[in-house]
Amino acid sequence: MLEVNGLSTGYGKVTVVNDISFDVPEGKWVSIIGNNGAGKTSLLKAILGLLPTTGGTVKFDGKDVTKAAPNQRIRAGMAFVPQGQQSFGTMTVDENLHVVADRYGSEAQARYDEAVEAFPVLKEFAGRRAGLLSGGQRQQLSIARALITRPKLMILDEPTEGIQPNIVADIQRSIRSMVEDRGIGVVLVEQKVQFAVERCDTYHVLASGRFIASGKGGADQVETAKEAMRV
């Protein structure tokens, strides 16, 4: 579904991501792990069209979108959950969800219900202002807002940053459910290796803008991935 081939990008004359290739089939979870400064967010921005490519191609759903604007990629079925648990803090959870859902007319309630089903805690706190939620609850809200669009591909940038361990586990289970139950492809970038690797289908280790290791996901692969990051 997503095909990244020889992708390079950067800022001005500085190349940050160099000759990256990977695929995300429908209903598969691909994790990209790396330390700070590895180029993870820059890679996501290039896939989304937020950074221009200096080489290579991005294909989505069989179409070349290398030169497509970000909004065109979103309309084609990409969804992006950026780093930082973003929401409208002065609005309630319910209002945050309806801002997205109400765009879909007669489908609004069904889409809203699907999002809340993925994260039941949001129903419990429907009337609470988003700014009063914990970091983990705000992250669940951010992912639920993206789910309302019924994406083909969900792109997540460091979704565990600053989140308590019990909610990290809930988010991991929810991502696996998106993949298995809804057939959504997932690209996730993370520093927390266990979260990223133990339930993904494939992982890649990014360092200095290049992939230095790759493997199949699974609990038995976590230590191998950690060792690759230490190289």
TrEMBL record:
- SMART domains listed in its UniProt record: AAA (SM00382)
Q: Name one GO biological process term.
A: L-amino acid transport
Keyword annotations for this protein, in alphabetical order, are: Amino-acid transport, ATP-binding, Nucleotide-binding, Transport
One Pfam family named in its UniProt record: ABC_tran
Q: Please report the stretch or stretches of sequence annotated as the ABC transporter domain.
A: 2-231
Family matches, as PANTHER family: HIGH-AFFINITY BRANCHED-CHAIN AMINO ACID TRANSPORT ATP-BINDING PROTEIN, HIGH-AFFINITY BRANCHED-CHAIN AMINO ACID TRANSPORT ATP-BINDING PROTEIN LIVF
Q: Any idea which GO molecular function terms this record carries?
A: ATP binding; ATP hydrolysis activity; branched-chain amino acid transmembrane transporter activity
State what protein this is by name. Answer: ABC transporter ATP-binding protein
Family of this protein: Belongs to the ABC transporter superfamily.
Q: Which InterPro entries match?
A: AAA+_ATPase, ABC_transporter-like_ATP-bd, BCAA_Transport_ATP-bd_LivF, P-loop_NTPase
Lineage runs: Bacteria, Bacillati, Actinomycetota, Actinomycetes, Bifidobacteriales
Q: What superkingdom heads the lineage?
A: Bacteria
Organism of origin: Bifidobacterium primatium
Is Oxidoreductase among this UniProt entry's keywords? no
